[in-house]
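FAQ: What does the model actually see?

It sees only this:
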Amino acid sequence: MNHQTHELKRDLGLTAALAIVIGTVIGSGIFRVPQTMINSVGTVPMVFLVWVVGGALSLAGALTYAELAAAMPDAGGEYVYLTEAWGPVWGFLYSWTQMWIGKSGSIATLATAFFEYTAHFVPQFEKIWVVLGPFPVKYGQVFALVLILLLGLVNYFGVRFGGGVQVAMTGIKVTLIAFVIVAGLLYTNPTASNAAPPNVPPLATGFVAALVAALWAYDGWNNVGMVASEIRNPQRNLPLALILGTSLVIAIYMMTNWAYFRVLTPVEVGAHKLVAAEMMQRVQGPAGAAMVSIAAMISIFAALNGSILTGARVPYAAARDGLFFKSAARVHPVFRTPGVSILMMTGWAAVLVLSGKYDDLFNFVIFGSWILYAMAAASVFVLRKKRPDLVRPYKTVGYPVVPMLFLVGAAALELTTLRDRPIQSLAGIALILLGLPCYFYWKRRLPAPR
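And it is asked to produce this:
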């Protein structure tokens, strides 16, 4: 049956859209990055300032994307904005990057983090199972592979089903994080030391390093736009989900850090990679530390499901426009999901898990990906001139200052990355541009316009 006879269904309401934003953003970052941040800036007030700046930049991005998503509520998110504003080649390069490196690498990273936390309870996962050529494969990697494929099947069998899993897991995640916050704020012996960790870099350098860590923890607020064609009443629900969801994440992060630094000194936070586990160990002993591992697992699980749910819509959108394998544009006649695209995305992410090379690929394209994110945000300027007739149910609050704030933050991040990792940054651009021959191949196969 021709895939064009079926369309994706608008089965996701505001609750599911909020769960995608919150559940995809809050992964393992809040449990890990405070160590990087305090070691970079040295004092608790500076850590909170970094969280505020990172949150403000993310909220500026969400406010900007809200206009684009409400005006063009189609599958693919940035793919749609880039194509409409800058041309199909830019949309294609975004979809190429997400399919083969960005989103698939993120899925592999989250699944691996899940097995690493699970190894707290199942030490066998850290043992080598088999060696495939140059790649030693741990039992945990096999577990991560199976988890990716299972969640792929969950989302294959209907967006309402996948969205329901997202709502449930996000609700449990937020509840457990709230328990950590309350435990920290009720701690009866708060820390009195403000001594900075040793070897803190100069403030200018350290602040940028800490901000990069914070932006990584905030990353993912944009994913809900990828499933815009499956959101009910998108003109209302997409802006609400982006703005309210991002604001709630900022509040959760600030409260969680307040709890951390109430229980632990800056030196202690700087010395422990898993700061939440160390805090709960102090407050409630081994049971508290185990609870944090469970909370982290559920948090990562929700982020993983959200990444699969949203990420598969990007290659689907490109295929629908004739710029990817035709099969990826098929919508299942019963489940109304881009089933082939889901299987392709999760299958490739599973391969990356086994290879263990996802981190290398993911780090390579951070620089190039942020260029595309900035271009997507700048689409709000381009389209106001190019498409003044476009119906905009929501217009960016604070325009043009708010979009410019996001672009300035993106530029600062790009310049810092280029300065600190020039070879990786330029190699990442080259890796993205490798998609150009594929673009011209698929473009030549498109029917000539009438």
